[in-house]
Write a structure and sequence with these properties.
It is a single chain. With 197 residues, the chain is an alpha+beta fold. The chain has helices at 15-26, 41-54, 75-82, 87-100, 110-127, 141-144, 154-161, 172-176, and strands spanning 6-10, 32-35, 62-65, 68-71, 105-106, 169-170. The protein has 8 helices and 6 strands, in the order E-H-E-H-E-E-H-H-E-H-H-H-E-H. Helix 4 (87-100) packs across helix 5.
Length: 197
């Protein structure tokens, strides 16, 4: 991969800035991080003047990759701009092929989709299977079988509301905005969290 000039305009107190910095560090991506809130007043003024030219709203985080400006927490867009592929990209490609043929589509909100897929990978590492990231799993396949993604509630949720509970899988109508986006009610019966004897 060719060397790129990457600058992160950040605040040390901003969780989204810190998440992007951690991503860069974890992926060993060379970058310059400007922690604006840790600068002297005159340095802050200089950074704001510089940032205003790139991002007139002067919002944080702002990432610049070889002159291309990305504002806000857009981890997937940053990765794609830098040219990085990770395990989550492979999972996206695999699951998309399997599920689109069945009429289930990934949420068009790419950042949300990739955060949910990252969470599935965390659960896979933790439990050995891709437990739903939006429900409490116990790590026992038999006990959690209804919430292994895609969960058994996906089909009725997408049929009735256009989206599964997490918002990972949706209908074409959901992505096109031709149906209302509502909070999906939980279908999983609470007694499934109770210990079985």
């Amino acid at each position: 991969m060719k060397s790129q000039q990457i600058t992160l305009y950040s605040l040390s107190t901003c969780v989204y800035c810190n998440a992007i910095k951690k991503m860069f560090d974890d992926l060993h991506i060379e970058h310059t991080c400007i922690q604006a809130d840790e600068l002297s007043d005159s340095e802050k003024e200089a950074v704001i003047a510089e940032l205003r030219k790139l991002n007139p709203k002067c919002s944080f985080p702002t990432v610049v990759v070889d002159g291309q400006v990305i504002t806000g927490y857009r981890a997937q867009e940053i990765k794609e701009t830098v040219g990085i592929r990770t395990e989550v990209d492979d999972l996206f490609d695999t699951l998309r092929k399997i599920n689109e043929s069945k009429g289930y589509y990934f949420n068009a909100e790419k950042e949300k989709t990739f955060e949910l897929l990252r969470s599935l990978l965390i659960n896979k590492d933790r439990y050995g299977f891709t437990a739903c990231p939006c429900r409490l799993a116990f790590g026992k396949r038999e006990r959690d079988k209804d919430i292994i993604c895609p969960c058994v509630y996906r089909e009725p949720d997408v049929k009735e509301f256009g989206s599964c509970y997490c918002g990972l899988y949706v209908s074409i109508e959901w992505n096109n905005g031709t149906i209302d986006h509502i909070d999906i009610p939980e279908r999983r019966p609470p007694d499934l969290y109770d210990a079985k004897e």
